[in-house]
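ok posting inputs for the flavin-adenine dinucleotide job
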Amino acid sequence: MDPLGSYKSIISARATDKRILKRCQDGGIVSAVFIYGLENNILDGVIVADKEEGFRPVPKVATTPEEVLEAAGTKYTVSPNLSVLKSAIREYACEKVGVVGTPCQILSLRKALKYPVGFRHMVDKVKLLVGIFCMENFPYMGMRIIVEELCGVRIEDVVKMDIGKGKFWVYTRWGEVKSVKLKKTHPYEQSSCHVCTDYTAELADISTGSVGSPDGWSTVIIRNERGEEIINKMIEEGYLERRPIDEGKFGLGLLKKLALVKKEKNMKEIEHRKELGLPVPPDVCH
Amino acid sequence: MAQTVDITPTTRHEGHAKLILEVDGEGIVSKAYYINTTPIRGFERMVVGRPAEFVPFAVMRICGICQTTHGIASCSAIEDAIGCEIPEDGRLLRELTGLGSRMHSHPIHHLLTLEDFVKPEEGDLKIEIIKLIQSMRKVGQLIVDTVGGEGIHPPNIVIGGMRTNISERAKAKLYYALRQFEKDAYRMYEIYQELIERFLEEVGIPDLGSHDYPYIASHTTYGDREAINWDGIVEIPPHRYYKDMKIAESTSLMIPLYEGVPAEGGPRARLVKFGNFRSGGGAMDINIARAKENLGAVYRALEILDELNINGKTRVTPEYRDGSGIGVHEAPRGMNTHFAEVGREGRIKSYRIIAASNWNFPVVEKAIEGYPHQYAEVIMRAFDM
Ligand SMILES: Cc1cc2nc3c(=O)[nH]c(=O)nc-3n(C[C@H](O)[C@H](O)[C@H](O)COP(=O)(O)OP(=O)(O)OC[C@H]3O[C@@H](n4cnc5c(N)ncnc54)[C@H](O)[C@@H]3O)c2cc1C
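and the output
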């Protein structure tokens, strides 16, 4: 099994803009790419996951760097980003749209672009797909239980959540950090994530996540020319700083390992569901 | 010798219909029947008992071209029934969506009538017109896409107003598109005037397709229920309108009458009622009026962009209560009216639609009578059926 899908190169990188680094999840790659795109006329609108009260994600069409910053950071629950794609192109009249999404969202979007039924005038207007690595996601109430019951933090107090080193972390606005072992969060996962075999958003132009790079840096998988062009320009113009990816056990090794874990574990679940005659996803990204 | 000429189906128009003509020894039509062969689909029944919110989306499916106008008429009928006032910016966006629909529908009708007036050897002219049509239609579609949320069955038209406003960027984009449309529409108007003038000269019948019926129109660019005396409107079954029972049984249409007689709706009716367009002329005037309305549409659309506050509220949450109401929208081809009665829990108690083309069916018949039968379809087409 091919762990990461096809790609041109993999690097470690992080944004140079302090405003981004202050708000982003890892190396701020997603926000930096979108802000670069908006500021240089490569993109004129981007779809991100903003949040409302109670850490509820709301898909948003951002057309300014400020709006992109506002929506930085990971929400560990479903944000139906594609639901506003039409709005971006219709009521916002964007012609060069960037979209960030989890692997499943990137997959759906690629499919929509290939078979644009119900997507009139949209195919040529989606210009950049940025995928984020994802092992699993949580339904909103699942996330809330992890935060409030397992970590004992009021949802209003949360400023950031993170997954790393085998734990789910919650950062409060009072400066406290709480965590819970991932073993305990498994029951609250979205069950559909258990038949997904894509860890690194294999159909994106650029995929990014924390795994494989030091804290504060991101691993960036550049998958095609479009992705390469934009990342190279950003490095040249000083929007991003880069370092070579660690090829060893805690770098690329870990990334490949986790990607394979997701594939193998979830292939088993798929086989299991087949035995029971339950529906399974079509053959993609095995 | 008198004879009957059947044209079945009639071609180059939007619906499904046939013409049955009684023609005298000189080839002049003495009696014309214009039969609507679109099967009855029962929308008026289908919506009874359904939640009101469902209705605009359902009735948009009545027509492949006029979804917007059915959506608008339906929403405003239900709003009228429950006493719901929509915000000003919602109203402006609705009117703009309706104009977008007019701005792609009118040009497509120019395409359908084109063959009646351009000669086979005028290939270049034909190409020029078709290019104009394409460019104009793009703008109309862009408006419905952007403001309506989707070019076909625009989902932003909802009870209470419009689902959302548009962005600054969208407004700018529409502005430039409209300026292009304005140029194209001028050229189209010039071309149509010349073509029609030449056609009538060659035919030698300046008033081809004239009739004595009155006009019906409620507004130039939108729709106004206050402009119509609703007590004067009745719909009668074809069995009462036609003496020939066979004919009456073959049409799927109710015949609407205004103050006891059929009335013409559409571009000419609007321009006569609210402008200074010539009344009582031949049917070819309608083709010119249509080309002229493209201009009115683009001016009004630009004005709406000026008036629109893109940060304004576009929708109120409707509160359902019992009542009945009327919604009128001036569709490209005539006045489109929906009558809604809303009952318990916002469900529809009864629903009636007099779609735009209904008005013109009996008028087309009258307009064809008295003229050589070979022009019957040209006359019918002028009405955009
Ligand atoms: C459910 C989930 C699981 C993840 N699992 C892993 C993992 O196992 N390993 C790993 O290395 N990385 C994982 N990530 C990715 C990681 O948390 C960061 O999002 C990623 O590294 C990008 O960080 P950044 O600093 O470059 O982005 P930022 O500059 O912080 O931007 C992140 C962008 O993603 C958008 N976003 C946030 N949440 C969502 C969401 N739920 N759906 C769609 N878009 C969203 C934001 O609006 C923002 O635009 C996961 C992310 C999610 C949402």
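notes: The first strand of chain A starts at residue 9 and ends at 15. Chain A has a mean pLDDT of 95.
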